[in-house]
Amino acid sequence: MVFSRFLFFLPHVLFFSMLQRPTWAIKKSYVVYLGKHSHGLEISPVDLELAAHSHYKFLGSYLGSPEKAKDAIFYSYTRHINGFAATLEEEKATEIAKHPGVISVFENRGMQLQTTRSWNFLGLETNGVIPPDSIWEKARFGEDTIIGNLDTGVWPESKSFSDDGYGPIPSKWKGNCQNNNSQGVHCNRKLIGAKYFKKGFAAAVGILNSTDIASARDDEGHGTHTLSTAGGNFTKGANVFGYGDGTSKGGSPRARVAAYKVCWPNCFDADILAAFDVAIYDGVDVLSVSLGSHGSSDYISDSIAIGSFHAVKRGIVVVAAAGNYGPTDYSVSNVSPWLFTVGASTMDREFPSYVDLGNKQKFKGQSLSQDSLPSEMYPLVTGDNAKLNNISVEEAQLCMPGTLDPKLVKGKIVMCLRGDNAREDKGEQALLAGAVGMILANDQESGNDLVADAHLLPASHISYKDGLAVLAYINSTKAPMAYITGPTTQLGTKPAPSMAFYSSKGPNTVTPGILKPDITAPGVSVIASYTGASGPSGQPYDARRVAFNIETGTSMSCPHISGITGLLKTLHPDWSPSAIRSAIMTTARTRNNAEGPILDSSNQKATPFSYGAGHVRPNRAQDPGLVYDLTTDDYLYFLCAIGYDDSKLRSFSDSGVPYKCPKSATLNDFNYPSITVPSLNGTVTVGRKLKNVGSPATYKAKVHAPEGISVSVEPETLTFDSVGQEKNFNLTLKAMQAGAAKDYVFGQLNWEANQHRSDGVLQSYVVYLGEHSHGPEISLADLELAAHSHYKFLGSYLGSPEKAKDAIFYSYTRHINGFAATLEEDKTAEIAKHPRVISVFENRGMQLHTTRSWDFLRLETNGVILPDSIWEKARFGEDTIIGNLDTGVWPESESFSDDGYGPIPSKWKGNCQNNNPEGVRCNRKLIGAKYFNKAGGNFVKGASVFGYGNGTSKGGSPRARVAAYKVCWSDCYDADILAGFDAAIHDGVDVLSVSLGSIAKDYIKDSIAIGSFHAVKRGIIVVASAGNDGSIGGFVTNVSPWLLTVGASTIDREFPTYVELGNKQILKGQSLSSDSLPWEKTKKMYPLVSGGNAKAKNASAKQAQHCKAGTLDPKLVKGKIVVCLTGGNVNVDKGEQALLAGAVGMILVNDKLSGNELIPDAHLLPASHISYNDGLAVLAYINSTEAPMAYIARPTTQLGTKPAPSMASFSSTGPNIITPAILKPDITAPG
């Protein structure tokens, strides 16, 4: 079901006071706005010249001559915007403002910049896979839409702006690139325009700083980040210091882009208007404006409002940031009704970094610190307890520049309070004073709002409440200690979205009857392309350079909407800017991914003053059904309604006849996609008009009335027979008693049509209904009745059982009662309220928790099975049936041979799916094999890997029967997992092994918890892995108490591979390399080089250290042994990259976090994996000589190693975040 939706709310009367400003006889820069030009459709050079001369003549009448006017004017807006910017005395500006042909005169003020998981979170892709119904596919990735960006310019060398695979530039494009100095911008078929505007900045401030590049080249990074978010290419390997690694892309990745540099870094009105005038002329389709001022101005004195009005008149969508002055009410900027105004919210990705205190308390923070601490505790001190003499406590608490005493800080972790100076600057001050780390604690106003910054030292940003706990600990002991873990990347976090603390809020101070912001989108910790001229912290002392950076602000949410707008422009080129805005607003969502309301940073329910219509859903916006459209005349009507007179509006009219205000203009009839009544006194009726942009349908009004207000709609039903048809309705609001609206109250109106469904807005969900009431023997009739009950139940929501049958792709009919279906999100919220429904949750993906062990566990001794072994007593698990939910089975393996096995146990009801040439043929050992993709072995002699670890492979129950349930197809989805459980329970397994998992979640929304509960009820033991998310507390998964949850530890076997250095040092590593270097008599040493010293030209040293794809230079690698650092990419892949570059071997060195944990991988070249400390020794040797040499010995098999077991660093640990009173994991075993 698709519906169009808008919000209405009724606050108190708002009061404003306007103060008269004094006038001084000094010169300042001003913008004189005259309205529109009267050029024809095609603007000629003569038109431009005549317009400029008219400005000189007009101003000359005040200054004494056109020549004086020409000297004073530094911008003539000659294309679409009519006006000029000039240096004038205030008295003269006041005089000019009185001229009847002048709309407004205002000072040239400065504005501020409102500073790739997000597209996955918005549903355009799923784990890197773009589904066929994604708006990306349908809108051809925004192909040939032109997105302009008013910002700090562009870094053209970024791969986000490469033109590989692009055809000719669209013929309508009139723009170009300014490239008049050695640091200019060279355009291509992707980046088709780049211009800069600095005269307004120079007039207001003076000449450019020496660091400011006088071109459209971006030296700040902000413009490159926003432009690539809106329209950047698909670019692999996007990460910040290895965190958040993935593929960067813009909302319209195949759009053409143009940069208009107006910020240096402040952005002045005169430059902004000049850029608008040029961008309109150049031919952009979308303008992204991540700029704004603190507070809002009258529309005719606001350069963004003026410029965007002229743009929207010409069909250009203008998207603007709401501002970063939250959470204060009335702080929203860019409030004109023709602008699309965007707030900022979180997405489902975090970069957790934990703070461990000496009293065993642990706090979760956020960070993107490049460096991490060795695993030990450090002294802890607050900034105010480490202050220099003559420095105030308040300044030192904030770690302001020059406030910390190195004698009191050196070698310690410093706690700094958020506020006043930049977060990264606090870390810089701590580092300069000798600190080893920083805990950044929020002040009370910042609350729970945490930001992952690229700090210069190990750091973690924690909440206000956690900061109080750290402070209490410091004050409780004479020797406080702490440790900060290195950051990790965590996906699928909940709840999300939540409103960002800084995101500016309504009400709208200029026109309280217009709701702003309009929408919210991801604006927290967004990774996108960055400049090569500045470090990731943006601070002048930061010498680091990155290709991608993480940024936070409404500046980041704005280009998300710009990119989505570009898609809609491609998909629906006939839609007006207002129709596009309406489509996005009326299909937005006000709930989070935990199915609760969107929260603010204090975990309180947010309101439309924060998020507008809600959180954007791009796939829904492509087919909204109905839109609230607006024309230029509608906007002129709006200006009449708020008190503008005919003389002010005359210059805006497009027709030969000037626009004339009607006698009675009211905002109640302004066709905005939301309704706002600033003061409700009695009864108010508002009118709206809906335009059909979908298939014929009948829509019915559904109202969620505000508290204390009655709402009626007339008519309640609207029928549309054709595209473009328009129909009116009235909505009447009445206070049910005097003073009912004592504060702001909010409601919602939906127009719903059962007949109208959008193909691109569906997601898959699991609806869990509990237990079936079948008898002991389940018949085919039982299964059929169960399925029909699902069709009937869902059909009551979708309109018919037939529609339900189309939507359901799994009916769980045996033991688990429920179904998996493709549904619209709003429909799932409805279903979840039904009393029979236990839970409804999204069909999410899980990850796989990716033999000497039985000897180590004492089931045998050197291959001899002792009489008291449980193997003997339990007859090797004979005829027990073990099922495995995983990636399937390779039936040809000798582990699954049925030699010597008798008949299959009579209780077994399962079989093998073998309906294609590559199916699985079962036997008396492997008795079941099934796969679900709609969303223990024998004794085997000679088991080894390239001859290492040679012995007899066997399962824990080597005489058990086994069954494979394939539920993983790289990822493993809830719907398939539940289907696998339901089938396995019915088939008759005795044990289920489940090496899968994700972040721990509520039991009734966890497919493994649900499936295992039904299995355990029937006497089946379910064993599950604890997870591979490392030693950070609280990451253990599969925590339900009926599961047996298993951690991982080592055994007493190793595969040592020694590294011999040219200085005679010998270091012990691990490997299972199939090849080895020449040895014994022919042994020779080989040249040794670190990846960082062998980097390709376009690669960073950080990437090359990790031997990432394409980062090594074959000229510097060929014939050598390469040293690669763990992390970032797969260990075996590092060897592949070294081999491709011509290396003869690889030394794989642990980072600090991995420490001493070594893994023998089957590398493609001779290799050895060594510890962090041994890696430091190798690095020290390389740096000590001009010709470092090394040799890697062949791996061997070593048994009886000690100590063992040791816990694996990857093994997830408690506490149990769902039920802390239940210890998880339950046990550890070889892993």
From TrEMBL:
CDD domains associated with the record: PA_subtilisin_like, Peptidases_S8_3
Active-site residues, Swiss-Prot/TrEMBL: D151 (charge relay system), H222 (charge relay system), S555 (charge relay system)
Gene Ontology terms describing biological process: proteolysis
Residues spanning the signal sequence: 1-25
Domain of life from the UniProt record: Eukaryota
Domain Inhibitor I9: 29-114, 764-849
Every Subtilisin-like protease fibronectin type-III domain range: 669-757
Record family assignment: Belongs to the peptidase S8 family.
Protein name in UniProt: Subtilisin-like protease SBT5.3
Annotated source species: Protea cynaroides
